[in-house]
Write a structure and sequence with these properties.
The protein is of the alpha+beta class and about 190 residues long. Helix content is about 30%, strand content about 25%. The chain starts with a strand and ends with a helix.
């Protein structure tokens, strides 16, 4: 069996990881099996070399990524809800042969949910699109890592633990309403 190889950006900011962990757990009933990440390359026929990973990291050095703007797309599992990850410099390291930009556009994103419950997806999407519940996270702490599908040790590194107070910090920042947590849970579960 041939393995598929990828390059991920893995988020290392406990605040960003904490917010994403909350959203994923609320939508899926469980946390991610892998750390929150953005796939920037792959599938590739061969594992990226250390020099390749280093060059990508150098290209992205000092780049701040905006995680915001929800979207929906259809998948083999049903529907997916995602947050876009934006910064134009991502185009310089983007290589997804199965999803060429010419055909699919350029849409870096973090998938929060991929499953059969289209109503949950639509409710969460509508919730995030209201002004008082917009998620906008800035992240400049991340790692570029190679990943091989089906390998036993997916991420040979210590994962960043999400800040359990991240939602409270998001509320305190004034970026979302004070009832964000309970409103989100009510919106997706009604």
């Amino acid at each position: 069996m041939m393995s598929s190889h990828f390059v991920f950006i893995v988020f290392d900011d406990p605040y960003v990881v904490g917010v994403l962990d909350f959203l994923v757990e609320a939508l899926n009933g469980r946390r991610w099996q892998q750390p929150p990440h953005l796939t920037i390359q792959g599938p590739l026929p061969e594992r990226p070399t250390a020099a390749c990973i280093e060059q990508i990291a150098k290209t992205l050095a000092g780049t701040q990524l905006l995680i915001a703007n929800p979207g929906i797309f259809h998948t083999k599992n049903g529907s997916a809800l995602y947050l876009q990850v934006t910064n134009e410099i991502l185009r310089r390291v983007w290589n997804k042969p199965d999803y060429p930009i010419e055909k699919y556009g350029f849409n870096p994103h973090i998938t929060l949910y991929d499953g059969p419950d289209i109503n949950k997806v639509k409710k969460a999407h509508d919730f995030f699109r209201t002004n008082k519940h917009k998620i906008e996270l800035l992240c400049d702490r991340y790692s570029v890592v190679p990943y091989t599908a089906k390998q036993i040790e997916l991420f040979p590194r210590d994962d960043v633990v999400g800040d359990e107070n991240a939602i409270q910090r998001l509320i305190a920042s004034g970026k979302v309403g004070s009832a964000f947590r309970s409103s989100f849970m009510a919106a997706i579960n009604n």
